[in-house]
Amino acid sequence: MKNSNTYSFYSILFVILFTAVHISFSQSPLSDDNIKALVDKYKNDIRGPYKDIRWFCTDGSVRQPKDPCPDDIGPGVQHARYKDEVIALGKSNHIFLGQILAYSTNDDLWDMDHNHSRLKQYQIDKYLRLIDDGWVNQKGQFYRGSVQVEDEEAWGIGFYKWILAKDVVIADNFYFLRQSLKDIPHYGDDNVAQLMRSESKVISDIYVPFMDLRTKIHSQPEKSDIQKILDFKAKNQKSLTTDLNKKIDGLVVTMQTFFKPVDVQSLLNKSKLVKGTTLGDKVQAFIQGKASNETPSYVVNEAAQLLLDIREGLLEEKRPMARLQLLDISLKLEELLFQNAPNWVPTTVSGQLEKICALTTASVGAGYLELWEWEQISGTLSKFGQDQLSLAELTQVLETARAAVEWSAAMVKANYQEVVDTYTTFEPKSYAFIDDRIRGSVALHLGKSVGELGDFIAKESALTNMVMDIPNQSTFRGLNPGYAFGELVVVDGSSEDIEVSSDKIYIFQRSPSDLKPVAGIATVAEGNMVSHVQLLARNLGIPNAALSDANLQSLKKYDGDRVFYAVSNKGNVIIKAESKMTDQERALFVKKERNTDKIEVPIEKIQLKNTDVLNMRDVDASDSGALCGPKAANLGQLKKMFPEQVVEGLVIPFGIFRDHMNQQMPGADSSYWEYLNAMFVEAERMRTVGVSEPEVENYQLRQLETLRDAIKKMPLKTDFMNQLETKFKTVLGSDFGKIPVFLRSDTNMEDLKDFTGAGLNLTLFNVLDKEKILNGVKEVWASPYTERSFKWRQKYLLNPENVFPSILVIPSVDVDYSGVLITKGINSGNNKDLTVAFSRGAGGAVDGQSAETYTIYDAGGYRLLAPSREPLYTTLPATGGTGKKVATFQNRVVNEKNLNEIKILANTIRKTLPDATNSDYEGAYDVELGFKNDKLWLFQIRPFVENKKAVSSGYLASITPKINTEKEISLSTKL
Predict the structure, then answer these.
(1) CB under 8 Å to 822, separation ≥6 — which residues?
(2) DSSP 8-state class, residue 44
(3) Nearest to 516 by CA among 529, 497, 530
(4) Nearest to residue 826, comparing CAs of 852, 854, 860, 847?
(5) Coil, strand or helix: which one is 397?
(6) What is each CA distance from 319 to 162, 180, 329, 753, 933, in whole angstroms?
(7) Could you please report the per-residue DSSP string of 49-110?
(8) 391-395 contacts: CB < 8 A, separation 24 or more?
(9) What gap in Å lies between CA 328 and CA 323, rounded to an integer?
(10) Could you tell me which Gene3D superfamilies the record lists for this protein (predicted)?
(11) How far is CA 531 from the centre of its chain?
(12) What SS3 class is residue 264?
């Protein structure tokens, strides 16, 4: 008996201890592998992610499944409870599996503090269940009573009654809110288009010969595809299993449902709150018009306009349930348009322009573009009624329409990419979610129409891309000229962990923010044309182009092939196999002497004996490369010219760095400086005895890693620290450690005549703590010796050992938005125009964010080239460090007043800076600036460096067609 009691005691104790340990560990985030293991376990669990079923009563009580809530405490709902580890995963990783709506509160699902992550996860979960036989509920989907459809629908109606009462939510989150209606059940709704795509994907995954039909259904579904599927089934009957036959039959039924005429009248009859209102009357007028004219062009045009009318009028309707009914009508209109768009086949240029305009209008109405963006581009896209357009005007229509496609796709990515990236780490099938959403949008048909217009204009202008044998080549567009030869690497996913090589050509969804040297790049999400990566590519003659996601998918089959890649001065793109290179192209890569085309860091005027911390007011452009780098020197110059637009600042000159490098290096029998120079001497010796360049580089990188770590631990001299303390108070007006500052690396290798060095070294944002500032100084000193910075230097500089960092210390300005001004029209090619790119928050545009970009014309007016689609932006709190806030896109970033002020600033810089600096420089400038409460602040100015060799290359000139932009094209011309 005693033994039994003892056994029971220890059993209970073990359970208590195990539970305590489990709870303790569950607070730490689970690894991706652990989450994947959970998902796999739930797939094979007959209850999936659920523990048991209970009644949840109105008074908050929970009862057994056979003991329903009594009438006196309300009806209650019955559903499953989550397993304990599912709840723990939500707390530790903010990942929610198998969500039951009736088990959630409105605030929980809307999840505002996490950028609506829970609702987005609910949508991804529904997608995964469609394509993966229930996903985490593969067996749990048969767990009777775990989810009650009628309770989920009732919850959905209640949720929309709550959320659609909020005007600000509708204005800020129109696209996302409208998308959620496709997934959250209400009124017995469905999403047949997504079901059609997912069923075809499942079949092709099981039976590869179905892939061509799947591709057709995903890219351009038509009613005639039903017969093709039936023919496929008959032809392959001997190879099809019973299960495959069932799945194909199910797909046929789904497609028959999808292609049934959309009954808008029936939906309007159900929408009793809408009937008789202004928008209700417009819906009724559309129905009546369609009854007498069912031609696809009429239906698409009218449905597109009605979609836009509903979006514009939604806020005028104040009743939440009426808003819900209008949004349901909006979704049905999009289905109707989706059905009819493929049947509208224009025969003339005018007809093609009209279709593009209609589909763009529909994209705005469906939320893929914002209303203010439509105001910017609608005039350009509405020219289909004219008799003729010049080739230049028609090309601008094409560029604008192509941009509308890109912006539409970017809207989907901006809303879902973060959550998809999280889910992809433990469920790779999640990655296709965004593609599925885009293919289910109006952008699918818009992109096809724009591609057809591009093909026509390419023939008229002879500006034809030649990219292997892939389709839709007109969606390629060159960003800067250059040529390269090497292995093609196609990265379909995140690029941040990709180890790049300087002799390869990369196709990215989005280029990494800290890109190391590469031979050539092309990106789907180009970020913006003035990011550090783009400026480096432009400066160094690296061919760089933008392409569509479909182009990237088409190029995947050439991953690993050796190719020739060129972008001409006019932006046409060539990618061809090595075997098809001409003799002229091969001659471009004949090995040259190692130092050819490299440049030398000037050190003849450097002053290393000055070891005083300087007031930025006491330096100007003449001190660049002498006392400090160009950032500090030029900002000091700007402080003299624009005293109210430039902050105060401190400069830690080259001499202080060099003085500290003379100290004994721990673990070495030399100073830091001697150690560095000995490394370069040894590297040169290795080359002379025939050691391969990769081995030499590997040796240097190992030595630099040791040096970098040593610099970060280097003792700072007392005199230097005392000077900092004093200068913070006298110059910055605050005690050291009481005001947040930027520490910006400012080397003598930056902004040379032929090398920009943009973004290669470290900038520390908004550092407040005294100890962090002092450590930050050493981190910035160490940053020129990182692998990325060294590789860029080594590739283009003759004397990379003579790189000296100074540091610019300036107070933080928590700007509302910031970005870059280039005093040249990069897109227009006019040196008198301006290029402006801005993002919300601090550090805008320079790190490759999706930026709001304009050309400001010298002749007057401006053109929107791209809106910002960056979902998060950086803030600079007074407590130091950085914060992140969620961005919405319904309002533009830069206003008209800002653009006018930027134009005035640019004119002043052009006129006065060369005189103020006694410079003969006649090129464009690259200016970093920001706005706080509409006040302009200047942070940096540097020369805008382009690669003269690429621009003047005889080969690039030979592949650049001579285009007669004045050529008039009749819009009645047959396609």
Answers:
(1) 530, 834, 835, 836, 924, 925, 926, 927, 944
(2) T
(3) 497
(4) 854
(5) helix
(6) 11, 19, 16, 63, 35
(7) TEEEEEEE-TTS-EE-TTSPPPGGG---EEEEEE-HHHHHHHHHH----S--GGGS-HHHHH
(8) 391/457, 391/460, 391/461, 391/963, 391/964, 391/965, 391/966, 391/967, 391/968, 391/969, 392/965, 392/966, 394/349, 394/457, 394/460, 394/969, 395/457, 395/461, 395/965
(9) 9
(10) ATP-grasp fold, A domain (3.30.1490.20), ATP-grasp fold, B domain (3.30.470.20), Phosphohistidine domain (3.50.30.10)
(11) 13
(12) helix
Q: What pairs with residue 852 in β-bridges?
A: 838
**Cβ–Cβ < 8 Å for 740, 766:** yes
Q: Where are the beta strands (DSSP E) in 511-639?
A: 520-525, 544-546, 562-567, 573-577, 614-615
As a whole number, mean pLDDT of residues 797-810 equals: 82
In this predicted structure, which of 4-8, 643-647, 787-791 has the lowest mean pLDDT? 4-8
DSSP state of 262: P
Pairing of strands 834-840, 817-822: antiparallel
Encode pLDDT of 387-415 as tens digits. Answer: 999 999 999 999 899 889 889 988 999 99
**Tokens representing residue 52 in the block:** 């048991």
Q: What is the DSSP letter of 664?
A: B
* β-bridge partners, 520: 505
The predicted pLDDT at position 19 comes to 39
Quote the CA–CA distance of 148 and 138 in Å, as a whole number: 17
Residue written as tokens 């908004």? 766
pLDDT score recorded for residue 10: 39
In sequence order, the 6+-apart residues with CB closer than 8 A to the CB of 124 are 416, 419, 420, 423, 430, 433
Q: Closest Cα partner for 956 from 480, 458, 481? A: 481
Q: Report how far apart the first and last C-alpha atoms of the chain are (Å, whole number).
A: 95
Written as one letter, the residue type at 337 is L
Alpha-carbon distances of 475 from 221, 345, 398, 467, rounded to whole Å: 21, 20, 10, 11
- Percent of the chain's residues with pLDDT above 70: 90
